[in-house]
Specification:
There is one protein chain. The protein is of the alpha/beta class. The protein has 2 domains: 197 residues, Alpha-Beta Complex (2-enoyl-CoA Hydratase, Chain A, domain 1), CATH 3.90.226.10; 47 residues, Lyase 2-enoyl-coa Hydratase, Chain  A, domain 2 (Orthogonal Bundle), CATH 1.10.12. The chain has 10 helices and 10 strands.
Amino acid sequence: MTKSETVLVTRGQGVLGITLNRPEKLNSFNEEMHIAFRAALQTAHDDPTVRAVLLTGSGRGFCAGQDLGDRDPRSGEVPDLGHTLETFYNPSLRLIRSLEKPVICAVNGVAAGAGANIAFACDIVLAAESARFIQAFSKIGLVPDAGGTWSLTRILGEPRAKALAMTAEPLGAAKAAEWGLIWKAVEDASLMEEASELASRLAAGPTLGLGLTKRLMQAAATHSLDEQLDMERDLQRQAGRSADYAEGVLAFLEKRQPEFKGQ
């Protein structure tokens, strides 16, 4: 398949950089961009040299969700939006959540609709202070998708999730951080530097253990305490047999920085 310029992919220091790249459309998704985005996420899964992912957008916005230019009702066609979700959004969201490597999202501007919810699916979200998150679906008679009803309700609770979805009021980065919806809001000029440093630091870390941590955290919401304790036992056993654990202990005993291999 021909390489698409709608998603830019870079590599460095174990980090796979994914940049949504339709700045003239606020990085809203069309079919070509969906396919390229999913391919980039699949690369992160398949390539063992990738130890962290850094997702961001080009231009003045992160992502405005779906490109509504492809949904003009004047065409006379009635769209099957469920097909769009099942074919494009849902597989990509599942790839983000199932990737046992850190996924860092740097929200550089407006994140609206599915664009906001893709960010919330990532493991650590940093946002420029000027960024805003908007559940824009109610403005056009739709329901939140791309995992929005799942992530917002679990992170914020039902009252705030409902209010954001029904009013479509913008939520600033500072308030999103205060509410625990994202990790932190940072100065606009510092966003990419801080996000890149974080991605590089995690990529140099014990990738196996970080991936197992992600699996545990994501399972906790649906587990009883006994189930979670059992899962911690099993995954700690796996982590304790890893080369990274041996290196971490050895480095501690030798009073030096560990050199993790992600194994």
